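Weekly puzzle thread! Below is a chain. First person to post its structure in token form gets bragging rights.
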Amino acid sequence: MTLTLLIIIVTVIVSLIAMNNDQLMDKCIFHPYSIAKDPSQWYRSITCGFIHADLPHLAFNMFSFYMFGEYIEKDFQIIFGASSAMMFMLLYFTALVICIIPTYFSHKKQYNYRSLGASGAVSAIVFVGIFLHPSLQIGFFVIPPIIPGFVFGPLYLALTIYLSKKGPGSINHSAHLWGSLYGIVFVIICSQLLSDFSPIDNFINNVIGYLNALK
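Winning reply:
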């Protein structure tokens, strides 16, 4: 069983239980106000990634994760060798924490603010996939997969920044933004430290190759 499938199975089980258990939902959800009062509750930055608001929320996140996760596992085997599994898990779980930190500082005085879902970590995985395979054809909601990743990525980030600045809503766009950026930074730094692979050169060469093929 791949790590991607393992994470999906655990997330689906915990999410389904939490949807019918208010006590568990309240215990796991990211609540900046409670964390500000009691720093030991930072565990919520992890547990909130294993609960979801409803079935569509859960299905969208897990489908997106499945579409990219197993490919990233294979990429990491090439890049990091025997340490690939550890690096994949490190990426996923640190992304859960990193992506939610700006949310904490923005809402730590707001008692009624809560956030949940794996979107930040999933965004990190998706953007690692886009960064490593920039010519990969990707769809955008109702648009079929006809947009190369290096075009999709900036469009998605621009939309996410706009929606994040627009104001509060039911979706934590900040987590999407910081998760996406963190994924790219993680791969660049870890590749530099732990392997001979250059993700930046790989990205540039793939984009140039894609553009040349269009001529």
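Puzzle host: Confirmed. Bonus trivia for everyone else. The two ends are 42 Å apart (CA to CA).
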